[in-house]
Amino acid sequence: MHGTAKLFALIAAALITMAAPLSAQVIQAPSGAPGGNYQGQQPYGQQQQYAPPPAQPYGGSGQPESRQYGGQPAQSQQQGTYTIDEIVGEGHKFFGTVSRELGSLVERAFRQWGQPNGYILGQEGSGAFVAGLRYGEGTLYTRLFGQRHVYWQGPSVGWDFGGDGARTMILIYNLPSDQALFQRFPGIAGSAYLIGGFGMTALGGSNNMVLVPIRSGVGVRLGANVGYLKFTPEATWNPF
C-alpha cells in the first residue's frame, strides 16, 4: 500500500507540472480573422480612390497657357478670328517690348475693322527717299487654314522715311483662304497712323480683304504713300 500511494503521488505531481504551461498560454486571434485587430487597415473594396491632377488650361499652341484672353476667346476660335488680347500679346512677344503705344494701335485697328482672322509676323527691308521698293517675308498664321511662309514686294512712292530690317506685323481681315492672300493690295488713302515708334497703314484687296501692317523702329514708313504690296508664295525680286 505504501508503494502504491507513492506511485499515485508521483503521477499526480507530473500531471500538475504538465498542466501549468497550458494554463499560462493565451491564444490570440489572427489580425485578419473576425474579432481581430483591423485598426489601420482598409477593408477590401473601400481603398482610397486615385484622384488625377488638375488639368492645365490649353492655349491652342500645344503648350499650357497662363494668360487669360478677353473678348470671348471660345467664340473667336470657332469663328476663326483673334481677340485683341491675343494680338497684343503676340505683338509684345514679337516686337520684344511691352508698350501702350502698340496696344493703342491694335485697339484702333479693332475699332475700325473688328477681329482679324489671320496675321503675319515677319521682317521687311526697305529704304528710300521719294521713291523706293519694299521686300518682306514672314509667316502667315490662321486658325482655319494653318500657317505658311509668305513673301511680299511692292513699290513705295511718296514722302517716306525709314530704313531696313523693320519687324512687321500684318493683321488680315476677311481672308477666305490662304491662297487668297496672293494678290496686290493698294494702300488706303488716309489710313496712316504713327504713335511712339510704331506705325500703322491699311491696304485693300479683292473679296473685301483688308491688310493692316504695323511696323516698328527705323523701318516705319508713313506719309503720302500710294504704293501697294504684292504677296507671293515664293520669293521674287519683281515688285510688279
Can you characterise this structure?
By secondary structure, this protein is of the alpha+beta class. It has a domain at 73-232. The protein has helices spanning 2-24, 73-79, 84-95, 100-113; strands spanning 118-126, 131-141, 147-157, 166-173, 184-186, 193-195, 198-200, 203-204, 210-216, 228-232. A hairpin with a 4-residue loop joins strand 1 (118-126) and strand 2 (131-141). The chain is globular and about 40 Å long. It starts with a helix and ends in an 8-residue tail after the last strand. Mean pLDDT is 72; it is low at 17-71.
In short:
The chain is of the alpha+beta class. It contains four helices and ten strands. The chain has a domain at 73-232.
Offer a few descriptive terms.
240 residues, alpha+beta, ten-stranded antiparallel beta sheet, signal, DUF1134 domain-containing protein, globular, EipA-like
Strand content: 25-35%
Structural class from helices and strands?
alpha+beta
Overall residue-averaged pLDDT value:
72
Q: N-to-C SSE series?
A: HHHHEEEEEEEEEE
Number of strands: 10
Radius of gyration: 41 Å
Work out the oligomeric state of the chains in this entry: single chain
Main sheet attributes: strand count, strand direction, barrel closure: 10 strands, antiparallel
Uncertain residue ranges = 17-71
Shape: globular
The level of helicity is: 10-25%
Summed up, the helix count is 4
Distance between the termini: 145 Å
